[in-house]
Amino acid sequence: MFDAARAALLSLCVLAGTFVVSGTAEAACLSDQQRLQAIQSGQLVSFSSVQSALASRGYTQIQSVRVCQGGSGYVYEVVAVSGSRAARFVVDGRSGRILSGG
Fold first, then answer.
1. Which residues pair with 77 in a beta bridge?
2. How confident is the model at residue 71, as a pLDDT?
3. Beta bridge partners of 65
4. How many angstroms separate the CA atoms of 91 and 39, rounded?
5. Which of 45, 48, 51, 75 is most buried, with most CB under 10 Å away?
6. How distant, in Å, are the alpha carbons of 18, 34, 83, 84, 87 from that of 1?
7. pTM to 2 decimals?
């Protein structure tokens, strides 16, 4: 029970930090429709590629995902959980490579 409560608290803290720390304006982030169009046009890797990269680090439970304009193109901003640890990741939208987090 303690681990579940701790994981939930960590997730909330990370989620709150995602919006405070990232400072990414919502206008610079894609809607679901825009994200699908970017994937179909080859501007963005599919989310399954991002999931594979996160899973290789042990993060298999996804809490939130958004795609935003980064310095050199699109990035996935993902909050994921591994056991009782929650972490925020920034993943390159073209390659699926983890740029930061964990």
1. 66, 90
2. 82
3. 78
4. 15
5. 75
6. 26, 40, 13, 11, 21
7. 0.73
Count of other CB atoms within 10 angstroms of residue 76: 26
45 with 36: CB under 8 angstroms? no
pLDDT tens, residue by residue, 1-24: 444 444 444 444 444 444 434 444
Gap between the Cα atoms of 46 and 37, Å rounded: 11
The pLDDT of residue 7:
45
Residues paired with 92 in a beta bridge: 75
b vs e for 9-19, b when ≥16 Cβ sit within 10 Å of the residue's Cβ?
eebeebeeebe
- Widest CA span in the chain: 45
- Give backbone dihedrals phi and psi of 63, rounded to 5 degrees, phi first: -95, -45
DSSP lists the bridge partners of residue 41 as none
What is the CB neighbour count within 10 angstroms for residue 93?
26
How far from each other are the two terminal CA atoms of the chain, in whole angstroms?
24
Domains in the chain: boundaries? 2-101
